[in-house]
């Protein structure tokens, strides 16, 4: 028997050290709720989980972009809805002016009303914006068409949904001649009949703008619904890799705890065996 090197004790200590490391790792997982707390836990799993997390984050931002785009498009649509009401009112007043029962003074009053309504139609175009982006014309002072709007509703730069340009003001709707006439205070019965055609054309143009906005909004909302489904499934896939299974890990912890206790007993016994040498020396 040899007592200078207690091989049995060394083996037991090595096993106990490894068990304690496993026990510590199990405790870390149970306390954090993650099965991967550092790269050494699962290097390939960490790489996959991180990539899935980045993808989910990008998709969620795409969802936020889409929701913001819907809000923007709804602002444009509601503003054009009010402009549509104005055009309907102007059409009714032109019909009223185009009859012999309306006197010249009455037509003058109608012209003033139409002039104010056209001013308000322009005011709506000047005021309608989302976070400084003008929606119905180029800017508060420029009456040209608005800039093309692009929304990234997705995780890549190619996931773009675009909205058509809009010029929903007196100039864009082809009502400059009517505006000039009523601004001068003149509106004859014949002119009232002629301008009805211009109003009908303006209503058609405005309805086209609203149709484009509505179809774009439907496209964005569809993309958002699809992205939300993707984000949920990707997050679930990440959870399978990254999150700890408490049922399995708690069972593993209990097993390692028992092994650690047994290891301590084994070390104790390995050390006590050496004392048997004393009996040989008695």
From TrEMBL:
Cell location: Secreted; Bacterial flagellum
Domain Flagellin C-terminal: from-to ranges: 198-281
Domain Flagellin N-terminal: 3-141
One GO CC term, this protein: extracellular region
Example GO molecular function: structural molecule activity
Keyword annotations of the record: Bacterial flagellum, Cell projection, Cilium, Flagellum, Secreted
Primary location recorded for the protein, binned into one broad class: secreted
Function: Flagellin is the subunit protein which polymerizes to form the filaments of bacterial flagella.
PANTHER family given in the database record: FLAGELLIN (PTHR42792)
Family, as annotated: Belongs to the bacterial flagellin family.
UniProt protein name: Flagellin
Organism: Halarcobacter ebronensis
């Amino acid at each position: 028997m040899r007592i200078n090197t207690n091989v049995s004790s060394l083996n037991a200590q090595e096993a106990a050290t490894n068990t304690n490391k496993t026990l510590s790792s199990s405790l870390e997982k149970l306390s954090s709720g993650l099965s991967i707390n550092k790269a050494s836990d699962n290097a390939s799993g960490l790489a996959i989980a991180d990539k899935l997390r980045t993808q989910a984050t990008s998709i969620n931002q795409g969802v936020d972009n889409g929701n913001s785009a819907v809000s923007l498009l709804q602002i444009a649509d509601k503003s054009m809805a009010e402009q549509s009401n104005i055009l309907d009112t102007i059409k009714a007043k032109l019909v009223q002016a185009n009859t012999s029962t309306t006197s010249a003074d009455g037509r003058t009053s109608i012209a003033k009303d139409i002039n104010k309504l056209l001013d308000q139609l322009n005011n709506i175009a000047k005021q309608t914006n989302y976070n400084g982006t003008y929606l119905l014309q180029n800017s508060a002072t420029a009456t040209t068409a608005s800039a093309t709007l692009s929304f990234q509703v997705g995780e890549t730069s190619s996931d773009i949904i675009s909205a058509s340009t809009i010029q929903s003001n007196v100039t864009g709707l082809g009502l400059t001649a009517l505006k000039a006439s009523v601004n001068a205070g003149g509106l004859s019965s014949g002119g009232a009949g002629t301008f009805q055609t211009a109003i009908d054309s303006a209503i058609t143009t405005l309805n086209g703008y609203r149709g484009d906005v509505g179809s774009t909004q439907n496209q964005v909302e569809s993309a958002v619904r699809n992205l939300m489904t993707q984000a949920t499934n990707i997050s679930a896939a990440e959870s399978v890799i990254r999150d700890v299974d408490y049922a399995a890990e708690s069972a593993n912890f209990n097993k390692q705890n028992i092994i650690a206790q047994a290891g301590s007993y084994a070390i104790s016994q390995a050390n006590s065996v050496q004392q048997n040498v004393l009996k040989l020396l008695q």
